[in-house]
Amino acid sequence: MHIHIFWDSQSPAGLQEPVKRLISSVIGVPATVSENHVRIMGYSLSRRQADATAILDSLHAFKYRQKVTDLVLLVVHQDLFTSNHSFVFGLAREQVGAAVVSSARLDNAYYGKASSDDDLIDRLTKEGAHELGHLFGLAHCNNHECIMFKPDTLDELDGKKKMFCPVCRGQLEARIAAG
Ligand SMILES: [Zn+2]
Ligand SMILES: [Zn+2]
């Protein structure tokens, strides 16, 4: 079991190593990070957002072509939407082992505040680990501090800890053990 993180060229530079290390330690599975070579599809000029579903379609096709069987997490800088949500922090598709997260709304600059690498690393870790949790078959959790809690706001995301609650941890470890 291995996690591949694809880092889009315009995602926050210099953060990929700390984010990779933290995600790997939060989940308990080795991870590697590399430059992204998947085309970002589904960009809407009028919305200035990318369709997360279309990005997962591209990732799915890429994994199939390249015969990648490991889990893949793509980090992009474009703000994401889906047909059901005006924005999403990220989206996962368990059946194909692929997920995407956006740094757009995780940056203080989006809210008119000073950017902070520490905040971005913290939030990208939580969001990335959350979407990867879905790839391991985990559902949302009601524990506000758990990685699998679904945050609707940045404050809720910041209120989470970089860990799975005991219930989710148990499910995750069972899935990792099962391969
Ligand atoms: Zn979720
Ligand atoms: Zn939980």
Write a compact overview of the structure shown.
The chain has helices spanning 16-27, 52-66, 117-135, 154-158, 166-178, and strands at residues 3-7, 31-35, 43-44, 49-51, 71-76, 80-81, 90-93, 98-102. With 179 residues, it is an alpha/beta fold.
Structural features, described:
It is a single chain. With 179 residues, the chain is α/β, with parallel strands linked by helices. The strands form two sheets. A five-stranded mixed β-sheet has the order 2-1-5-8-7, with helices on both faces. The termini are close together. One zinc ion binds next to helix 3.
Helices and strands, with pairings:
Elements: E1 3-7, H1 16-27, E2 31-35, E3 43-44, E4 49-51, H2 52-66, E5 71-76, E6 80-81, E7 90-93, E8 98-102, H3 117-135, H4 154-158, H5 166-178
Parallel strand pairs: 1-2, 1-5, 4-6, 5-8
Antiparallel strand pairs: 3-4, 7-8
Helix pairs in contact: 1-3
The structure holds zinc ion (2 copies).
One zinc ion is lined by residues 141, 143, 146, 148, 164-165, 167-168.
Which structural class matches the secondary elements?
Answer: alpha/beta
Strand order of the largest sheet: 2-1-5-8-7
Bound small molecules, by name, code or SMILES, are: zinc ion
**Could you list the spans in which at least 5 consecutive residues all have pLDDT below 50?**
none
Secondary-structure element string: EHEEEHEEEEHHH
Largest sheet: 5 strands, mixed
Helical content class: 25-40%
